[in-house]
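Per your request, structure below.
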């Protein structure tokens, strides 16, 4: 039993080390990835790419790559610029005055609000349908079930066995 706990701890330390190393590598090329915390690109600031899960992205500066938001919105304010694509799933995109997107704009399950002076050089795709919610919830429910099964198996393995009387 002690051997299993020691192996589990060693595996946990290895996973945390790999996650910390991967995060450090992303910071060097100025990409931003967040889960549950909004990303803001300040005026005069330039980053590579922005990816946000369960949060929103506000662009006031310059993004040289793509901006992706899942479960949140993308707001491109005055003089904000995205050189790549802007994609959101379950949120909307708002382009304020003088905002610019060089690539494509794709919105799944939300709205596009655009000032007349904002520019989009690529294609604009807006897919809002009542089928968006089931298309998102069914795979998430399946993944949640798999995670619950894994937790149940680990807890069952880690449970101390009772000595026979």
């Amino acid at each position: 039993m002690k051997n299993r706990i020691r192996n589990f701890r060693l595996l946990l330390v290895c996973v945390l080390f790999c996650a910390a190393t991967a995060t450090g590598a992303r910071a060097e090329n100025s990409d931003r990835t967040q889960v549950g915390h909004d990303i803001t690109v300040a005026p005069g600031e330039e980053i590579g790419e922005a990816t946000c899960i369960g949060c929103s992205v506000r662009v006031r500066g310059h993004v040289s790559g793509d901006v992706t938001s899942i479960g949140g919105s993308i707001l491109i304010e005055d003089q904000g610029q995205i050189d790549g694509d802007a994609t959101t799933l379950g949120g909307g995109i708002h382009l304020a005055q003088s905002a610019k997107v060089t690539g494509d704009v794709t919105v799944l399950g939300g709205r596009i609000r655009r000032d007349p002076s904002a520019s989009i050089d690529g294609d604009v795709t807006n897919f809002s349908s009542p089928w968006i919610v089931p298309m998102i919830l069914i795979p998430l429910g399946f993944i949640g079930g798999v995670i619950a099964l894994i937790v149940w198996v680990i807890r069952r393995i880690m449970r101390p066995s009772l000595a026979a009387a």
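The CA atoms of residues 15 and 21 lie 10 Å apart.

Regards,
D.
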